[in-house]
Write a structure and sequence with these properties.
This protein is α/β, with parallel strands linked by helices. It has two domains: about 270 residues, Alpha-Beta Barrel (7-stranded beta/alpha barrel), CATH 3.20.110.20; about 90 residues, no CATH class. The protein has 14 helices and ten strands. The strands form two sheets. Strands 1, 2, 3, 8 and 9 form a five-stranded parallel beta sheet that branches. Strands 4-5-7-6-10 form a five-stranded mixed beta sheet. The protein is globular, with a radius of gyration of 20 Å.
Length: about 375
């Protein structure tokens, strides 16, 4: 028997979609995904950036109500920052505010206080633990490969369980997401969703995983938008059909037990405390600091330095808080892409002009407030 969980992250600020055109993501991405999960009785942890939640409320408040009505049963809510930044590019105060603002929106809209965090790009740093713990976050998702590096001598059948990581007195539970199954390539879930890997091949990998990791957790992680957005990145428009086929096959497997991550943690105490290395995530920092991104990054540093100085001299003032809001809004990673270095998707992502302008306009607005 294997426990199976899904982590779907929602970042409505996609680089391929112009600002103001996000309704298509809700209609053709989020709604089909939620419907598919409910139709097949598959549980999932949903991680919505605060900005995404606010946008969905304007576009289709019924979707938010559907998610709320199934919390504690089919769904569990995690947090996902305010505007989907790249954590490794943030000053400690910026990261703290991203988490705090995201959680405030989670509590206001959904009426629950999430205990789990999915780092954008699955980046991890030791400093994150203190900020997360201070905001009541008890667990985070990491790449299984990062856990394996920390536990090179651990038996394979003990890897897919909770572990405790942290710095000093600050600690969080870490849960590994599987990016490879037996007899499948890396990034198998993404490849399947893009139509490049047969559903039967992945289902067979699930069976093999269950044999190798009895009672462990097989955690799938994917962008919620991709039910719609994959046709922009790969030209494949059959994602909804594929995910339906996969969920149907998974639901019919007698060795699979659908769970939420919180449910699995409640049933399985952490095996031990580990030391994790910093991990830059699924992309490279140069993606957001060089090439077409360089000018925005230099402007960001200028705004950050000026704002941190203003925070020191006049903390909590109306002007300083307004500047912080503009800086947080400018953090969105998709509007900052200069060149995409990912080894899985080589080449450039098309960043729509208004998406980049949104970042630049908020940086300039922050400077204006601080002048």
């Amino acid at each position: 028997m294997i426990n199976v969980a899904f982590a779907f992250n929602f970042n409505i600020q996609r680089c391929e979609i112009e600002v103001g055109g996000e309704d298509v993501i809700v209609r053709e991405g989020y709604l089909p995904l939620i419907r598919t999960l409910l139709d097949h009785g598959i549980k999932a942890d949903l991680f919505l950036s605060g900005y995404s939640t606010n946008n969905i409320l304007e576009i289709d408040p019924g979707l938010i109500e559907t998610i709320k009505s199934h919390l504690g049963e089919s769904f569990e809510l995690g947090t996902y920052t305010y505007t989907h930044p790249i954590p490794q590019l943030l000053h400690t105060e910026e990261f703290f505010r991203q988490i705090k603002k995201g959680l405030e929106i989670d509590r206001r809209v959904f009426g629950v206080s999430p205990e789990g965090f999915l780092p954008p790009e699955l980046a991890y740093s030791r400093e994150m633990a203190a900020a997360l713990a201070s905001q009541g976050i008890k667990w985070i998702i990491i790449l299984a490969g990062l856990l394996k590096k920390a536990l090179p001598d651990m038996k394979e059948d003990k890897l897919y369980f909770p572990y405790t990581a942290g710095v000093g007195d600050s600690e969080v539970t870490v849960i590994p997401a599987a990016y490879q199954l037996p007899q499948t390539p890396e990034r198998f879930f993404k490849l399947m969703m893009k139509g490049e890997l047969a559903v039967d091949k992945v289902l067979d990998g699930v069976k093999r995983f269950a044999d190798d990791h009895p009672d462990g957790l097989l955690l799938f992680k994917r962008d919620a938008e991709t039910v719609f957005i994959d046709r922009f990145n790969s030209g494949f428009s059959g994602t909804e059909r594929v995910i339906n086929e996969f969920m149907e096959g998974l639901a019919s497997m007698d060795r699979v037990r659908p769970v939420t991550i919180g449910q699995f943690i409640a049933e399985n105490r952490a095996i031990g405390r580990i030391e994790l290395q910093d991990h830059l995530g699924n992309t490279r920092i140069e993606t957001f600091t060089e090439g077409a991104a360089k000018e925005l990054w230099e402007l960001t540093l200028k705004v950050r330095d000026k704002l941190l100085e203003a925070e020191k001299n006049n903390p909590g003032s109306e002007e300083v808080e307004r500047a912080w809001e503009h800086l947080l809004l400018s953090h969105n990673s998709d509007g900052r892409i200069g060149y995409w270095f990912s080894e899985w998707n080589p080449g450039e992502h098309k960043v729509e002009p208004s998406r980049r302008r949104f970042v630049e306009d908020n940086l300039k607005a922050a400077l204006e407030v601080l002048s």
